[in-house]
Amino acid sequence: MIPPVDIARLSARLAALGRVGALDGGGVSRLALTAADGAGRALVVEWMRAAELEVVVDPIGNIFATRPGIEPGPSVMIGSHIDTVATGGLYDGNLGVLAGLEVLAALDDGAIATRRPVTVAVFTNEEGARFQPDMLGSLVHVGGLDLAAALEVRSIDGTRLGDDLERIGFAGTAPLGGVTAAAYLELHIEQGPVLEAEGVEIGVVEGVQGISWTEVTLGGRSSHAGCTPMRLRHDAGLAAARIAAGVGEIARAIGGDMVGTVGSLRLKPDLVNVIAQTAVMTVDLRHPDEATLVEAEGRLAGLVARVAAEERVDAATRSLARFAPVAFDPALVARVEATAARLGHSHRRMPSGAGHDAQMLARVCPAAMIFVPSVDGLSHNVREHTDPADLARGLGVLATLALELAGP
Ligand code: HGY
Ligand code: MN
Ligand code: MN
Ligand code: MN
């Protein structure tokens, strides 16, 4: 049995990390590979080194901190991310990393020698807000994206990923994929309303829905807003607005679990009295079923072609990320469920609406996730919050299962 975990230190560290990249009025912005992300990484590495863990950084900036086991070999890996969106909170990703450190500390407090090593991992650019695709670091780690190609990815600010890694001092030299996992666990906030609405304490995550990110670029012709008759316009702004509305209509028409989002829409020259020359927008489509996601993508392609023809603008699309739905290892999912039950927590099986590094680790080892409730179902929002009692329950499930998997 693992000794009691230290929820007070977890909460204090979540707050301390939340002060790195803190926004006026609350919330956090530590977009991947910015100076703020670098500072957050440095703080977490400081905690890892203070715990005398073996810390290595790989060439895509993934950080691995290992507590050795009696036997060498693949670790029980506990991971997540500490990069955030621009309107981030204290918990998305950060909880999974800092909870992992608490598990290792509890093993030390109890002088418990585990058979397997236990590793805490921090994966680069999970969010995908500044560089696409999301889950980029864990995707490279499992061999799903070539390192050289990943280092050439351009951010939405135009910088090169490899240059930003160097700039923040996290272009590591440890062998890619060198730290292997026998199993992977990730504690994460639900980021949605289900657990709170049902009054359930633990989410037993069965898998992650499919994700499709597309960038749509529309090329029109700027001209005077007052002097150009509607029939003579090539209005990239109007075309973009019609496509954005159409994304909502596609999602509503398919219904059920289908979601569609236009999160970014940038016009040029972006002026009150100039018909837009260009529009660049992103479309985020997600669904648990691959065939339905493909159907939605087909409808999007038809929408773009039709609106571009009607508004007499050029249209180009580019895939930013595309991941099919992932099912986690059923046996490990069952062990998460059994652990929650044994600890006396109410629990329910559920899918993840958000993408996570666990879906990449699932390509190379049994992976599973534990959800804790999000207050008001909010995340990617500065008001993101999870109650300490819920943090403690999630941490207890994580610690108990990690010890079982690592073998006392
Ligand atoms: O978009 C996502 O699901 C994740 O936060 N990257
Ligand atoms: Mn996350
Ligand atoms: Mn996120
Ligand atoms: Mn995520």
TrEMBL record:
Keywords: Hydrolase, Metal-binding, Zinc. Zn(2+) 2 binds at residues 92, 127, 380. It comes from the Bacteria. Belongs to the peptidase M20 family. It comes from Siculibacillus lacustris. This is Zn-dependent hydrolase. Its cofactor is Zn(2+). One of its GO terms (molecular function) is hydrolase activity, acting on carbon-nitrogen (but not peptide) bonds, in linear amidines.
